């Protein structure tokens, strides 16, 4: 099969990501170059992502980033065979920037354009690591918007085993962090603070831990953290690290136990972790230990590819084309799917 050069554009939320990935026969595609611009500083003043500002900043960044990536890879725009973009889920206005630019490039180059599901990007991102997984595997997808366990038998063959019925794991981190006054995004800040805290200091709920299915619920945890914070009153400042550690322990325990249950249920011996919360150190340590004990191998994306990026979008498109899940003539479409 011919090698395809895929340009990927991610603009679903607060990171503009652009990347070039090339297929090499039937093997795992190769990352040629990628560039990222994070809007975190811009949104920090507002305590969260402001959608209108996000869209405008994507417009400012996407073409310079594209040029940077082409330059770093030493490739010309005209060498690109397929343009891929994040079709959703995400913020509608932000998604439209990536979709608009991708479709304009495709039209100008006379090349097909492929809309990629953001979560499929996360899901496949561990294939860009030095130790890529093999199908089939169980995937734990933990991002700011989703918490899902999936059985993955191949590219495009995904079976949902369970998911959060309310807040996502990343939301639980972010919202708890916010009410502890840790700013945005709260996940990394909370986990950093937790390193100096006692995880057994506060008893917090482990929702649905014994539900007998693979669903999650994190909304109650945030409320319990709020109640605890109020109870502490002016002692909160002194006990913040303990509360952070206890909160992280509650989230991590549920994620680990349910992942193991999914592995037992499917009989699979491989776990892939993806999405922003997959960067969490405590989650990685505890998953590694628990999986080692039952002879399961765990694969993670490289740390810098855990959170949103263009590489995973280019990769997902490349792997779909390789798998024959999509062919060039089918793929031209200009739309976004925010939900
Ligand atoms: O996958 P992602 O970049 O964006 C979405 O698609 O949602 O994930 C972002 C989420 C945020 O909730 C952020 O707080 C969380 O991932 N996150 C972390 C860590 N790094 C990012 N949560 C806990 N510990 C971390 N180290
Ligand atoms: Zn994401």
Give structural notes.
Its EC number is 2.3.1.234. Residues 32-314 form the Gcp-like domain. One of its GO terms (biological process) is tRNA threonylcarbamoyladenosine modification. It is an enzyme of class 2 (transferase). It is found in: Cytoplasm. With 339 residues, the chain is an alpha/beta fold. The protein is 42% helix and 19% strand. It has 10 helices and 10 strands. The chain has a 5-stranded mixed beta sheet with strand order 3-2-1-4-5, with helices on both faces. It has a 5-stranded mixed beta sheet with strand order 8-7-6-9-10, with helices on both faces. Strand 4, helix 3 (92-109) and strand 5 form a beta-alpha-beta unit. Helix 6 crosses helix 8 (236-266). The chain is globular and about 60 Å long. The relative contact order is 0.18. Bound molecules: 5'-O-[(R)-(carboxyoxy)(hydroxy)phosphoryl]adenosine and zinc ion (ZN). The site of zinc ion has 5 residues, from helix 4. 5'-O-[(R)-(carboxyoxy)(hydroxy)phosphoryl]adenosine is lined by residues 13, 122, 143-145, 170, 173-174, 185-188, 191, 275-277, 279-280, 307-308.
What is the H/E string? EEEHHEHEHEEEHHHHEHEH
Segments where pLDDT lies below 50 for 5+ residues? none
Termini distance? Answer: 35 Å
State the helix count: 10
**Estimated helix fraction:** 40-55%
Q: Give the overall form.
A: globular
What does the average pLDDT come to? Answer: 94
The count of β-strands is 10
Q: What value does the Rg take, in angstroms? A: 20 Å
Ligand roster: 5'-O-[(R)-(carboxyoxy)(hydroxy)phosphoryl]adenosine, zinc ion
Residues in β-strands, percent: 15-25%
Q: Describe the main β-sheet briefly.
A: 5 strands, mixed
* Category from helices, strands and their pairing: alpha/beta
Main β-sheet, spatial strand arrangement: 3-2-1-4-5
């Amino acid at each position: 099969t011919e090698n395809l050069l895929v340009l990927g554009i991610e603009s679903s939320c607060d990171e503009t990501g652009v990347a070039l990935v090339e297929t090499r026969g039937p093997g795992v595609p190769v990352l040629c170059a990628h560039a990222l611009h994070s809007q975190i500083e811009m949104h920090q003043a507002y305590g969260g992502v402001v959608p209108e500002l996000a869209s405008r900043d994507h417009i400012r960044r996407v073409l310079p980033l594209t040029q940077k990536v082409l330059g770093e890879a030493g490739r010309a725009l005209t060498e690109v065979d397929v343009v891929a973009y994040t079709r959703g889920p995400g913020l509608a206005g932000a998604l439209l920037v990536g979709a608009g630019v991708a479709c304009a490039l495709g039209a100008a180059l006379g090349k097909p354009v492929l809309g990629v599901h953001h979560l499929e990007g996360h899901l496949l991102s561990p294939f860009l690591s030095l130790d890529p997984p093999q199908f089939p595997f169980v995937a734990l997808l933990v991002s700011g918007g989703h918490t899902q366990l999936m059985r993955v038998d191949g590219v495009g063959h995904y079976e949902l085993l369970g998911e959060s019925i309310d807040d996502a794991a990343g939301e639980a981190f972010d919202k708890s962090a916010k009410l502890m006054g840790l700013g945005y995004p709260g996940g990394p800040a909370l986990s950093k603070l937790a390193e100096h805290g006692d995880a057994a200091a506060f008893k917090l709920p482990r929702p649905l831990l014994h539900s007998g299915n693979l669903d999650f619920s994190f909304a109650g945890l945030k409320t319990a953290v709020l109640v605890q914070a109020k109870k502490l009153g002016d002692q909160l400042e002194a006990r913040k690290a303990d509360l952070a550690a206890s909160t992280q322990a509650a989230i991590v325990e549920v994620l680990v136990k349910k992942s193991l249950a999914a592995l037992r249920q499917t009989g699979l011996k491989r776990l892939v972790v993806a999405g922003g919360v997959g960067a969490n150190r405590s989650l990685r340590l505890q998953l590694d230990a628990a999986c080692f004990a039952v002879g399961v191998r765990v694969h993670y994306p490289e740390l810098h590819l855990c959170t949103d990026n263009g590489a995973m979008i280019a990769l997902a498109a490349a792997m779909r084309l390789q798998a024959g899940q999509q062919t060039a003539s089918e793929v031209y479409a200009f739309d976004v799917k925010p939900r």
